[in-house]
Amino acid sequence: HCCLRTFQKLTAKSGTSITIPCFYDQKYKRNVKYWCKGERQESCTTMIRTDYVRKEGQVSITDDPKQLVFTVTMKNLERKDSDWYWCGVKTGGGAADKLAYLYLKVTRGVQRVRTKSWISAERGASVTIPCHYDLKYKNHVKYWCKGETWAFCSTMVRTDSPQKKGDVSITDNPNLLVFIVIMRNLQEKDSDTYWCAVEIDGGSDDGVILPLMIRDGETESRNRETQIRSSVTPPVDPSDEVTYSIVALHNRECVFSSSSFRAARSGQRLRTKRGDTAEDTHSHSVSAQLNFYTHMAPLFFFVFLIFTRVP
């Protein structure tokens, strides 16, 4: 929905390349875009820009105004490239730049289950996700899991049963060493982290992460005027913090808020996205009702006197 969107976290293998999308609003088609590295937006280092420095070493930037997206490609990744990055749009006129952050994690080791780095689709569309695996997993059960944390993700479909659930289906092709997941009629609620996974009897399951972003169609983006109301500061250490974002459309505006909660070392339980949102909404609703009855009490009393007067 927002003026500038990207994935909050992406993962890539050392030695490979990754292309990162930054989606923006129609009104920023002609603005300069840039890619910035560093933990904080006010002190990050601009690496490349769409106006003059379009390539620097292994990093390049390309703008596609027709699709309302600019992409950053980072080649020959190394472990030292693991860091916070920012998609940026110059606004000019003394206004603050529009920024959206992500954390890029570069890992080493053998990857026995592989898929795309990320997938983005428009609302109402369908996507087909290929999950490739090693020969040793040819006869294993495969499944599709939803949730940010691998250990607690929720299985949606499996190659044994159920192979189809709602708008999600899974099919294994052992001859090609790939299983296919199809998601249809995608909605905003489907924006989440998913996992291509292989079940290992008597051992830890193997899997690979895949972020999925659902966005409005180009026509809707063109007709919507949006703005970011609050600045966004990422957590210092992604390994010990839980980050969530709430995006809501309100009166033709885009209100974006991001909150970070540090997970206590003692294992204090944190509220989930859904639970936290529901509780906040409920408290606001109760407060509004109390204010309503407080202000309307004199009117109710006046009406009562009129109808109870003795003729």
From TrEMBL:
PANTHER family: CMRF35-LIKE MOLECULE 8, POLYMERIC-IMMUNOGLOBULIN RECEPTOR
Classification of source organism: Eukaryota, Metazoa, Chordata, Craniata, Vertebrata
Gene3D superfamilies: Immunoglobulins (2.60.40.10)
Species, as recorded: Scleropages formosus (Asian bonytongue)
One term under GO cellular component: plasma membrane
Ranges of residues in domain Immunoglobulin: 7-107, 116-215
Places the protein is found: Membrane
Domain of life: Eukaryota
InterPro entries found in the cross-reference section: CD300_family_receptors, Ig-like_dom_sf, Ig-like_fold, Ig_sub, Ig_V-set
The protein, known as: Immunoglobulin domain-containing protein
